[in-house]
Amino acid sequence: MPISDRLLKQLVTTFAPDFAAWLLNAEVDETEVLPGGLPVETVIVDALFRVRLKDGRTTLLHFEFQGRRSHRPMPLRMLDYLARVVPQYELPIFSVVLYLDRGAGSNDTGSHQRVGPDGTPVLTWKYRVIHLWRIPAEDLLALERPSLLPLVGLTEIVRPTEVLPKVVERIRNEADASQQKELLQQLIGLMKDEEIIAMTKQLLSDLELEDLKEHPFLWEQYQRYQERIKTEGRAEGERQKARDNILEVIAVRFNPTAMDYRRVEQMLAMLSDLERLNTLFSLALRSNTFAEYEQVLHASSPTEKPEPE
User: Fold this and answer.
1) One digit per residue, pLDDT tens: the chain, 309 residues?
2) Which of 25, 47, 93, 190 is the most exposed place for a label (fewest CB within 10 A)?
3) Which residue(s) pair with 99 in the sheet?
4) In whole angstroms, how far apart are CA 130 and each of 49, 133, 215, 224, 266?
């Protein structure tokens, strides 16, 4: 089971009343977790609740969390789930699919049907579709439900420097310390964009980061990210040192014009292969003229592009 699915199930189960109130757009009196296993064959839904609303009505609330890939098309999976849940509980039902990854479920409207030979609809089924990756992060903040804020990392964050501090501060304002701690852990755990993770990390205290150690899979994710940043930093440092060595040799041996020097500098910036850079350093020492070396440099990287910053 993907980590995101596990975290989302934990989040909606812990804060089921808030999620129910959000999706059903009604005041909730009570929620009850129902078994996820459905009859006949072993079919497991992601989350299923019995919800009693303030006005006395009772309904089922069914969640599915989906990334870009599904072993079966989601509409058919939802049809299967609905066909099993409805007879088992005989209650009104609200089903929702939360699409998590960018592009996931782009064409799913949540409204489907099958027709007979004459084109007459013989089967229709519907469910709510929420493309989290399309929702502006500001819209989630505007709901004023702190328990939904861990979803921010799955939304569209256009202005992270404005949004993330508000999210962290709003979670910190929670009176319940254990709930505050859990929400911060969920916030980090559900983030996928490494730049967003890094920015959020800067907003957290050492104690808050230390709390991640209580959840090994979150801590491992954070540690992997930190190690990758260090590794990439060391590798780029070696590449830049090789570029600088080449430029120093070029300057001393050929005394190029500022324009020529800048041109070589730009060409070297396009190279990321350390072995190739080391070879070019050796060639800089052996080339007879600047023109000869520049020709070798051109030939060595005709298609390579600059690395993203």
Assistant:
1) 566 777 888 899 999 999 999 988 899 999 998 876 655 555 688 899 999 999 999 999 999 999 877 777 999 999 999 988 888 888 999 999 999 988 899 999 999 999 888 889 999 999 999 999 999 999 999 999 999 999 999 999 998 888 999 999 999 888 888 888 889 888 888 888 877 887 887 887 877 777 666 655 555 555 565 566 566 666 777 788 888 888 888 888 888 888 888 888 888 888 888 888 888 888 887 788 888 888 888 876 544 443 333
2) 25
3) 66, 131
4) 18, 9, 28, 30, 45
Q: Which domains does the chain have, with CATH numbers?
A: 1-134 (3.40.1350), 136-214 (no CATH), 238-300 (no CATH)
Specify the residue for token string 């150690």: 213
Using the structure block, give the residue that is written with the tokens 């969390």.
65
pTM of the predicted structure, to 2 decimals: 0.64
Q: How many angstroms separate the CA atoms of 194 and 271, rounded?
A: 24
CA 150 to CA 7: how far, in whole Å? 10
Q: Which amino acid is at 285?
A: L
- CA 208, 210, 214, 219: dihedral to nearest 10 degrees? 100
